[in-house]
């Protein structure tokens, strides 16, 4: 099917605003897009042509509202409108968690992410479960930083199981921070997107931001903090119970993990899988399940996740 927008002034303007992003839409929707002068032509199956038109119009409205367009915004628009054809992109991009250090807004970029962000804002304990690339850890860090900046909490505590070292870190060189750095690096990377390096160093020095392996949470009561447990699929049942019972006054907890990537020894039950059953009906707990449709890292990552899901019969 071919559509010509030659006589439509508005869509002609859309093409000009989209510029180099036309190729991104064409690739994501598997269409042929030709733009020459006043003409924009789309060739492909009717449903994809209609989807592309909706994307172009939605992005035009977004640009018209003053939003500076990035490539990731285009991919997000395709992803959102595929699931909710009537969605208003302006509404999506207006509802932000905060901003990155380069000024770009932090927003949900899929339907699943929108529900996850809403849970992060409203609930004391949130489980974000899903495959690699769905943004579950990155958005959790963003929500935690936002709560810290608003003054809702006084501290941000980040933790992960150090499975590869069996939680015995003494034989590694360096102080505690150096020993656990490889395990907590993904959390540091997310924080680097949101907090300038010098300010982050000061916050760590003053223990406003604290990083520690999961084993070091035992015996503590964590008040007035956002406590984030990442890679929770590699926590044992005992560790997970210990962690969840650390929740103190004025605190919130976020637990993220991918149940398909458990690295625990054979016959050791994942604490994440166990907790999802135990607390599923507990008041105040939100469980958000992201899937391959929510992968935002790279289109190829989504295809890889789907391939493994087909192989594993999920």
Topology at a glance:
Layout (H helix, E strand, L loop, with lengths): L1 E3 L4 H10 L2 H9 L2 E5 L2 E5 L2 H19 L6 H13 L5 H6 L3 E2 L5 E2 L4 H12 L2 E5 L6 H15 L4 E6 L15 H17 L4 H9 L3 E5 L11 E5 L7 H8 L7 E6 L13 H8 L6 E5 L9 H13 L3
Parallel strand pairs: 6-10, 6-11, 7-8, 7-9, 9-10
Antiparallel strand pairs: 1-3, 2-3, 4-5
Helix pairs in contact: 1-3, 2-4, 3-4, 6-7, 7-8, 10-11
Structural account:
There is one protein chain. By secondary structure, the protein is an alpha/beta fold. It has 2 domains: 93 residues, Ribosomal Protein S8, Chain: A, domain 1; 201 residues, Rossmann fold. It contains 12 helices and 11 strands. A 6-stranded parallel β-sheet has the order 8-7-9-10-6-11. A 3-stranded antiparallel β-sheet has the order 1-3-2, covered by helices on one side. Helix 10 links the parallel strand 9 and strand 10. Helix 1 packs across helix 3, helix 2 runs parallel beside helix 4 and helix 10 crosses helix 11. About 2% of the residues have low confidence.
